Amino acid sequence: MSAYVKTAAVLLGLALLVNVTYWWAVFSTSFNINMCYSEVISFIAEQAQSTAASKADADMPAFKAMIQELPLHGYETDCNEVLEATKQYRSAHGQGPQT
Prior knowledge:
Helices cover 77% and strands 0% of the residues. The chain has helices spanning 3-53, 59-69, 79-92. The radius of gyration is 23 Å and the shape is rod-shaped.
């Protein structure tokens, strides 16, 4: 085999490896992000139901403020920041961590 063919084969192998690694990372990251968003959406739905059923006058403004203060930035949202905000809301309102 000539040196050019060997070099081309090595470069093609490296390109394939980089491509597979990139797509694996994209898939694994998107899966984790979607799971995080599912948890946040579930939390918001539960809080909306309990706030709507609550008789306390302070619950609705506190819930509204929490929703408005969630660190949402479209596709650049850091899900860990959003989860931390929900944990802070839970602890401030006497709720334990979500199981």
